[in-house]
C-alpha cells in the first residue's frame, strides 16, 4: 500500500464492540479485571478474522496459534453491567515471531476503561514452539496499515 | 468389589472443598450461576483422580474424554465470596457409554447451595464419538461403592 | 396485542448471535459446557433489554434481579472456536415470581448445540428474597407474544 | 516486627497451590492466559486471609476493596490440565493507597509458568474512590515480613 511496509506506526485502529453481561462482573459491582483481557482477545480475534485469518485458517493452513507472551495493562475506570465498550486494537510492533499490539477499551462516553500492550508469540500449533510469523500474515497486517 | 457390581445405589459420596473468590461472583453479590457448574466439575475431576483416572490417563491410555451431556440443576441458596463449599459427588447411574452423577454443593452450615444430576458421556478424544466406558473405569467406580 | 394475554404459548422467539472465542473453549477442543450457559444468559439479557428492561432499569426502578433458579439442559453437538451460534429464547411459562424460558443454541447449519429450560426467580436486589414480577414487566412480556 | 518496618524488601513469600481443571484450559490445549490472573488473585486472597483480612473484614470493618490497577505479566511456559501450580506472592512496594505485589506461578518441576507485578489500589467499597490503606493492614503486612 505504501513504500514503507516495515513501518508499523500506522494510524489504522481496529474497533470492535463488546457488551458487559452478568458473567463479566464481580461482587465489587464492576467488571472483574481478568475479563477485560477476554474482551481484548475478542478484539484481536475479530481483527485477525477481518484480515482473513480466523483460527481455522491459522490452524489448518499455517499450523500456528498466537499465544499471549506478555501483558502490560493499566486499569483506569471500572466498567459496569450493560455498558458497551469499544475495543481498539492497533499494531505497536512486529517482530520475527511476535506481534505487539496496543489495545484500548473505552466506554460510550470515550472514557478509557483500560489500555495496554499485549505481546503475542507465534507458535507451532502442536509443539507450541516459537515459529516465524508466516509472510502472508505479515504482509496482510502491513497492507492494512 | 462385591457380588453386586451392577448396583450403584452406593452410599459412597466423594467430597471436595472449593473456596469462593472474586472470579466466581457477580454484580448481584453472589456466585454467578454457571460457576457452580465449574465447582461441580472440579469435584468430578478430583473424584476421578482419586480413582486413578486423571485427564492424562483418560487421554493417553484410553483416548477418551467425559463430556457433559445433560444437566439438571436446582439453585437454592446463593453462595458468597470467602465461603467454603463442599462438593458432594455420588453415582446415580452407570450406562454403556454414560455416567449419571448426583452432585450437591453445601456451605459450612450444611445448607444446600445447589444440587442436581449431571450426565457424562464417554466419547473418543479425537472424534468426539460416543464410546463404551472402559471396563477398568467401570470396575473401579463399582469398587469404591 | 391479543385477547389471550395469559397464553404464553407464543411463537415469538428472540434471537441473538454469539461468536465462539478462545475464552469459551477447553482442552477437548470444544466449548466448555458451562460457557453455553453464559451464552444463554446473554440471550436473556438482550431479550429483556429489547423489552426495555436492562439491568439498570431492573435495579433502579424495580430493585429486582432475576436469578437462575433451575436449569435443565441437554448438550447435543459441541460448538468450536470461530463458530457463530444463535441463541433462541422464548417464554415457556410465567408464574407469580418466576419465568421459565426455553432456550436453544444452534450453529449456522441449524444444528442444535444445546437446548433446555431455564427458570428465573424474581428476587429483591438487596435481600435476595422472592418478589412478585412487576406488572409492567409481565405485560411487556405478554405484549410481545 | 523489626525496626525496619518500612523496608518491604522482605524474603517472605506466600505460597498457595492451585490445580488446573477443564475450565482453565482452551482449545490450544493449555491454560487460557487470562486464567493465570485468576490464580494470581486466589493467591492474593489467601495471602490476605492469612493476615486476617478476608473480604468480609475488608468490606464490613474497613469498607474497602482492593482493585487491580495495573498488571505486568510475562508468560513463559504454558500449564496444562491436571497440573498443580504454586502461586508465590510477595510484596514489591507499598504506597499510600496501593500495594504492588510480585507474583510467580511455578509447576511441580519448579518451572516458571508466568510471573509479574500486580498493583492493587485501595478504594472505597461503595464509591470506588481511592482510599488510604488502613494502618492495621499496613502493619500486618509489614509484620509478616
Description:
Helix content of chain A is 23%, strand content 35%. Chain A is an alpha+beta fold and 145 residues long. Chain A has a single domain (14-144), classed as Roll (Thiol Ester Dehydrase, Chain A). In chain A, strands 1-3-4-5-2 form a five-stranded antiparallel β-sheet. In chain A, a hairpin with a 5-residue loop joins strand 4 and strand 5. The interface between A and D is medium-sized, with 24 and 24 residues.
Determine the strand fraction of chain A and express it as a percent band: 35-45%
Give the low-confidence spans of chain A: 1-10
CATH homologous superfamily heading of chain A = Hotdog Thioesterase
Strand order of the largest sheet of chain A: 1-3-4-5-2
Short description:
Chain A is α+β, with helices and mostly antiparallel strands and 145 residues long. The first copy, chain A, is 23% helix and 35% strand. The first copy, chain A, has a 5-stranded antiparallel sheet with strand order 1-3-4-5-2.
